[in-house]
Amino acid sequence: MIQELKQNYGHLFEDDLINEIAQVGTYKEVPAGFKLMEIGSYIKGMPLLISGAIKILRDDKEGDELLLYYLEKGDTCSMTMSCCLGQTKSEIRAIAETDTVLIMVPIQKMEMWTSKYKSWRNFVFESYHTRLNEMLHTIDSIAFNNMDQRLLEYLKNKSRINEDNSIRNTHQEIAGELHSSRVVISRLLKKLEKLGKIELHRNYIEIIDLD
Amino acid sequence: MIQELKQNYGHLFEDDLINEIAQVGTYKEVPAGFKLMEIGSYIKGMPLLISGAIKILRDDKEGDELLLYYLEKGDTCSMTMSCCLGQTKSEIRAIAETDTVLIMVPIQKMEMWTSKYKSWRNFVFESYHTRLNEMLHTIDSIAFNNMDQRLLEYLKNKSRINEDNSIRNTHQEIAGELHSSRVVISRLLKKLEKLGKIELHRNYIEIIDLD
DNA sequence: TACTGGCAGTAACAAAGGTTACATAGCTAG
DNA sequence: CTAGCTATGTAACCTTTGTTACTGCCAGTA
């Protein structure tokens, strides 16, 4: 585990901290689609991502959902940290987007490291900063953009995250993450295909040129 | 200044910290409408609110705006803190919603207090937590609600913040903060009036019963 | 008083997105 | 090979929101 920590967090944390993390952290590998956190559940630990990606979703009362952002290598979940302090329930849902490797740190340690290690403090603040900006970006996207622009952005992100030129999702699934409906997404995807930006197939979408 | 600090932050900060804040902070009174921060500007200090309220807005490239949330007594601006560390420009606009009293703390002190005072750390984390949740709520509102629901919520908030049963804004201004257009807002307001929830007048809206 | 500028009311229309319904195309288990 | 399931394509229609245009109204002031 030390290996992975050094590789991914060595430039941020001093050796002492890395060692402490390695001592109390648990190494976890989860497959794509694995649900890491549900809305309303209590938080047991804080994840440090080693590889892969996790998507963070928001639900409304009717069960509709909306993709907020992805966590990637080197990220952690501010929402988690935030909840640890308040001992509150999770406001979001977290699902592995790809096969993902992460280290779970028990939340009790957080408080201690925060006073002990400046590097840890900076990491936590930095993480909050990043997350706030991602949320801002999400708001921009919903408030100021049309569905076709949002869809385009979605496809770009998805293919980047999955390091794959094809999106292996049904239209139904895409509609869910954008909080739209299947018919609308099919319609817009067709438009994108006619523009030569993508090619549609059953169960996957091939990306030709999104710019 | 010590007086105000103790009253509003005494339950959070020990006396030592209060004294330090009083030493380096500057006391500020700003009138409603005063622009405290513009998008793209660099951040000089961090505000601690004593009384009044500040509205936080997001702009898009075309100059359209959107109300994100309000800061009230006892709040601070996480966005500011976040920017301090990264030395980045402001992503948001801040305007006094009412006459507001606040204490500005130079950002250099932040880092020091963060290691020195546990109470300060908790305050900062707590603040991030609150802000993230407000952003989530904003996203919910935009993504899952119709304009009429958003308008209703807007009116409720506004009258609470201003401690006033009338909203002293033009339809144009309201449209701006909800990122809609004047005609739409007029239309919906009329509908609310017909439902007996409000009464419309020139330059202000009287609240009858929003529930 | 008459003029002016900003505000609000309303109608008519346009566009985006959501809904319903149905057809068809691929896949897969038997 | 085929029945049945799931994913996708498409049309027709509805609702919500945005746009344009024009009206009247009020307040301040020349």
Descriptive account of the structure:
- Two copies of one chain form a homodimer.
- Chain A has 211 residues and is of the alpha+beta class.
- The first copy, chain A, has two domains: 2-143, Jelly Rolls; 146-207, Orthogonal Bundle (Arc Repressor Mutant, subunit A), CATH 1.10.10.
- Chain A has eight helices and ten strands.
- Chain A has a four-stranded antiparallel sheet with strand order 2-6-4-5. A three-stranded antiparallel sheet of chain A has the order 1-7-3.
- The first copy, chain A, is elongated, with a radius of gyration of 19 Å.
- Chain A binds a DNA duplex (30 and 30 nucleotides) through helix 8.
Radius of gyration of chain A: 19 Å
Mean pLDDT of chain A: 92
- Tell me the β content of chain A: 15-25%
CATH topology of the largest domain in chain A, which one? Jelly Rolls
Q: Quaternary state, please?
A: homodimer
- What's the architecture of the largest domain in chain A in CATH terms? Sandwich
Order of helices and strands of chain A: HHEEEEEHEEHHHEHHEE
Total domains of chain A: 2
Biggest contact: A-B, 37 and 37 residues
Strand order of the largest sheet of chain A: 2-6-4-5
**Biggest sheet of chain A, in brief?**
4 strands, antiparallel
Structural class estimated from helices and strands of chain A: alpha+beta
Give start-end ranges of low-pLDDT stretches of chain A.
Answer: none
Q: What's the tally of helices of chain A?
A: 8
Shape of chain A: elongated
Q: At the fourth CATH level, what is the homologous superfamily of the largest domain in chain A?
A: Jelly Rolls
What is the tally of beta strands of chain A?
10
CATH class of the largest domain in chain A: Mainly Beta
Q: Give the proportion of residues in helices of chain A.
A: 40-55%
